[in-house]
Design a protein that fits this description.
This protein is an alpha+beta fold and 453 residues long. It contains eleven helices and 21 strands. The radius of gyration is 23 Å and the shape is globular. Bound molecules: iron/sulfur cluster (SF4) (2 copies).
C-alpha cells in the first residue's frame, strides 16, 4: 500500500541512551505533562490509531528508543493488524529475543538498527545481551542477502565488536554504516555542533517545502500524552499540531496549527523550525516541471517500459526520495511546456543494492536539451568508494524559439554489459522564472534556498 504521511511513535519520554547528537535536554525541559503521561499506554495507542487512516505509515522511532516501553511489541502488532505500513528504527535497547520472535515475520517498510560506534557518539550499551539480539536480527534478515528495507547505521565508525558480529551474521562487508549527523534544525547547541563537527544549517529564505513531506505537514511525531509535533526535528516542541487523544487525525492535519505552518512555508521569511532545517528545500510552483510526476507522459526513444519507473530510494543517511529508475541503455523524452530560460536540477546515482554486485559496473548519465548534450557523467560505485552517493546535477537552460523545451534523460553502459546498473535520476526538475516576487527581493547576503535544498 502506498503510504500517505507518517506518524512516528514516541513510546516514552526521556531516552537514557543520551546520544551526543540528540537534543534530549530540550525535550525534557519542554515536556511538562504528568509523570503518568511519560509512557504511552497500549490503550491510548489503540485509541489514537483508531482515527489514523491505514495508509499512514506508523514508524516506531520518535524521540526515544521505542522498546524502552514494554508494550512496544504489542503496539507494532496492533499497527500491522490494522493494515498500516510499519517501520522500525531502534537501538534494540529493551528489545528481548522473544520480542523479535513475535515480529520477525512482518514485512516492514523499513527496519533500521542503530549500533554502537567507537567514538561513543551514540551511547548504546555494548553488552552481551545487546549482542545476542543484534545477532538474531541481522542473521534473520541477512542470511540470504540483505533486503533493501533492512540496514544498520552508526553515528561514527562502528564499534569493532559490532562490526565483527554483523559481518559474521551475514551483513554485507563494506556496506557503508556511518550516518551523517545533523544539527536537528538548530536544536543542538553551537557547542554540540562544533564538538561533533556537524554541518550547521543557515536560515533558509524564500518559499520552501520539506524534503520529507513535500507541501503537506504530515510526517509527524506522537508524544506519549497524545500531543502531535510537526516532525522529528522538533525537540523544542515549537510546533504542536494538536492532541490525538482528544482530536481526530484529519482534524489535526486540517487544523489551525498545521495551516499556519503551510502558510509560513509559502512566505519569504516567516520564522519557523523549517527555516533552520537541512530538509527544507525551495518550493516547486507553477514555474517548475517535475519529470518524475510526468513520467507517464514521457516517451521512451530507446528501451522498453520495464526499464523506466519511479522508485523511492535512500542513500546513506539521506531521506528516501522519489527517483526515476532508468535501466540502461535507455533514452526517455519529455516535453516541458515552456520555452523560457531556467535551471534543470537532479542528482544521479546507481542504487546501493548493486554497489557490491560483481556483475555491476559503470553507467553513463547524460542529458540532452533541445538537441544538444548539456550534461554527462560516468558513475561507477562498484569501483570507486567515493561514488557511492548522489551526484548533484545543475544545468542552466537558455530560452528557445519553440513553444517548449525537449529534455532527454539518457543512461548507457560503456561496454556491452548492462546487468545490475540500476541507474537513478533523483527528483529531476526544471525550474523557470522565480517562484514569486518575494524571491526576487531576497537579500544578497542571505542563504540561497537552492543551496539548502
Ligand atoms: S538518538 Fe535515539 S537512541 Fe539516541 S538518545 Fe536520541 S532518541 Fe535515544
Ligand atoms: S523542513 Fe525540517 S523541520 Fe520542517 S517539517 Fe521538514 S523535517 Fe521538519
Amino acid at each position: 500500500m502506498k503510504s500517505e504521511g507518517m506518524l512516528e511513535i514516541t513510546t516514552v519520554i526521556g531516552c537514557p541512551i543520551a546520544c551526543k547528537a540528540c537534543p534530549q535536554d530540550k525535550l525534557m525541559s519542554r515536556y511538562t505533562s504528568s509523570p503518568a503521561a511519560k509512557r504511552l499506554s497500549l490503550d491510548d495507542f489503540r485509541h489514537i490509531l483508531s482515527s489514523v487512516p491505514t495508509n499512514v505509515r506508523i514508524s516506531f522511532a520518535g524521540m526515544a528508543e521505542p522498546w524502552l516501553n514494554p508494550h512496544c511489541t504489542d503496539m507494532v502488532l496492533h499497527a500491522v493488524e490494522r493494515g498500516h505500513p510499519v517501520a522500525i528504527f531502534t537501538t534494540l535497547v529493551g528489545m528481548k529475543i522473544e520480542d523479535f520472535e513475535r515480529i520477525k515475520h512482518i514485512a516492514f517498510e523499513e527496519f533500521v538498527v542503530h549500533v554502537a560506534d567507537s567514538q561513543n557518539n551514540a551511547r548504546i550499551p555494548v553488552t552481551e545481551n545487546a549482542f545476542r539480539v543484534l545477532e538474531a536480527v541481522v542473521r534473520t534478515y541477512c542470511s540470504n542477502g540483505r533486503p533493501a528495507w533492512f540496514s544498520v547505521q552508526s553515528h561514527g565508525a562502528p564499534h569493532p565488536r559490532v562490526l565483527e558480529l554483523i559481518r559474521a551474521a551475514g551483513y554485507p562487508r563494506d556496506f557503508h554504516l556511518e550516518a551523517q549527523l545533523i544539527d536537528r534544525a538548530g536544536n543542538l547547541s553551537n557547542k554540540e555542533v562544533s564538538a561533533l563537527n556537524v554541518p550547521q544549517t543557515e536560515f533558509v529564505y524564500g518559499p520552501i517545502e520539506c524534503r520529507r513531506c513535500g507541501t503537506d505537514t504530515n510526517h509527524n511525531v506522537l508524544l506519549p500524552d497524545g500531543r502531535v509535533l510537526l516532525c522529528c526535528m522538533d525537540y523544542g516542541m515549537r510546533h504542536v499540531l494538536g492532541n490525538l487523544l482528544t482530536d481526530g487525525y484529519s482534524e489535526i492535519q486540517n487544523g489551525r496549527a498545521a495551516s499556519a505552518i503551510r502558510e509560513a512555508w509559502r512566505s519569504h521569511d516567516a520564522d519557523l523550525l523549517c527555516r533552520h532545517c537541512c530538509d527544507a528545500r525551495p518550493r516547486l510552483g507553477d514555474t517548475s516541471f517535475s519529470f518524475e510526476a510526468h513520467l507517464s507522459e514521457a516517451s521512451l526513444l530507446e528501451g522498453d517500459a520495464s526499464q523506466a519507473a519511479v522508485w523511492t530510494v535512500a542513500i546513506g543517511s539521506d531521506v528516501a526520495e522519489r527517483s526515476i529508475f532508468l535501466h540502461p541503455p535507455a533514452r526517455l523524452r519529455f516535453e516541458v511546456p515552456t520555452s523560457e530560460e531556467g535551471l534543470f536540477t537532479a542528482a544521479v546515482a546507481l542504487h546501493p543494492d548493486v554497489w557490491d554486485n560483481p556483475e555491476s559496473g559503470a553507467c553513463e548519465f547524460s542529458l540532452i536539451v533541445n538537441g544538444h548534450e548539456a550534461f554527462s557523467r560516468v558513475v561507477d560505485p562498484s569501483l570507486f568508494a567515493d561514488e557511492r552517493c548522489w551526484h548533484d546535477v545543475s544545468v542552466p537552460v537558455p530560452a528557445c524559439a519553440r513553444g517548449h523545451h525537449e529534455f532527454i534523460l539518457v543512461t548507457r553502459t560503456l561496454d556491452s554489459r548492462t546487468s545490475h546498473r540500476w541507474a537513478l535520476w533523483r527528483r529531476p526538475v526544471f525550474h523557470w522564472r522565480l517562484l514569486d516576487a518575494h524571491s526576487a527581493e531576497q537579500p544578497e547576503t542571505a542563504a540561497s534556498p537552492a543551496a539548502a535544498g
